């Protein structure tokens, strides 16, 4: 095929049989397959930079950060047709059904191989879309929401989950999830 196929990350929940099938296929084919795990942010960023396309066949995503990371580096995206990816990429990607869409995935990859201009257009569109997302905008939206709730007299309680997120392999920032509650009655408990 002239390309190496690189599978990065974990196989996900229930994905081990698929990974084993891919490994068996790789062992008997003449196609170069690489299975990479536990990549550093810099390694992942470098992988994105060299990818002809980034394919994300996820069945479920919380936000879709891998798509945003690849988009921030102008990579053409071939994404599972799930809500987080559609919100991030809009028309900057080709989409397929992650359960029954093997033929559509194949067709999209052939399209990109046969039409380099399509890959460049998708890479540009995905990059432009990625520029709408930033940590500064997220922080300001959080502050604005907090002030709005406070101005309306809401009793604000929150649950924060700490961790680290990376963007483009270069920026590592803390993240947390916050849940706003309008009012809890005296007999209600917050857990």
Would you write up a description of this structure?
This protein has helices at 16-28, 41-50, 65-71, 83-89, 102-114, 116-130, 135-151, and strands spanning 4-8, 32-36, 54-56, 77-80, 93-96, 163-167, 171-175. It is α/β, with parallel strands linked by helices and 191 residues long. The strands form 3 sheets. A 3-stranded parallel beta sheet has the order 3-4-5, sandwiched between helices. A two-stranded parallel sheet has the order 1-2. Strands 6-7 form a two-stranded antiparallel sheet. The longest helix has 17 residues, at 135-151. It is globular and about 65 Å long.
Largest sheet: 3 strands, parallel
Q: C-alpha Rg, in Å?
A: 20 Å
Average pLDDT confidence is: 77
Structure annotation, total helices: 7
**Helix/strand/pairing class, anyone?**
alpha/beta
Order of helices and strands: EHEHEHEHEHHHEE
The low-confidence parts are: 158-191
Helix proportion: 40-55%
Strand order of the largest sheet: 3-4-5
* Terminal Cα span: 54 Å
Shape: globular
- The strand count comes to 7
Proportion of strand residues: 15-25%
Describe the protein's topology.
Layout: E1 4-8, H1 16-28, E2 32-36, H2 41-50, E3 54-56, H3 65-71, E4 77-80, H4 83-89, E5 93-96, H5 102-114, H6 116-130, H7 135-151, E6 163-167, E7 171-175
Parallel strand pairs: 1-2, 3-4, 4-5
Antiparallel strand pairs: 6-7
Helix pairs in contact: 3-6, 5-6
């Amino acid at each position: 095929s002239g390309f190496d196929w690189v599978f990065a990350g974990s196989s996900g929940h229930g994905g081990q049989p698929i990974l084993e099938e891919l490994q068996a296929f790789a062992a008997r084919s003449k196609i170069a397959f690489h299975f990479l795990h536990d990549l550093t942010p810099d390694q992942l960023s470098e992988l994105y930079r060299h990818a002809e396309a980034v394919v994300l066949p996820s069945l479920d995503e919380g936000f879709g950060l891998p798509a945003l990371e690849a988009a921030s580096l102008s990579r053409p995206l071939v994404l599972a047709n799930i809500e987080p990816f559609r919100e991030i990429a809009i028309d900057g990607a080709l989409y397929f059904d992650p359960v029954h869409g093997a033929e559509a995935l194949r067709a999209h990859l052939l399209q990109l191989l046969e039409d380099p201009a399509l890959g460049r257009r998708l890479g540009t569109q995905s990059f432009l879309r990625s520029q709408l997302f930033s940590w500064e905008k997220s922080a300001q939206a959080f502050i604005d929401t907090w002030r709005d709730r406070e101005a309306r007299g809401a009793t604000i309680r929150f649950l924060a989950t700490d961790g680290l997120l990376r963007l483009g392999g270069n920026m590592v920032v803390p993240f947390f999830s916050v849940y706003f509650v309008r009012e809890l009655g005296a007999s209600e408990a917050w857990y």
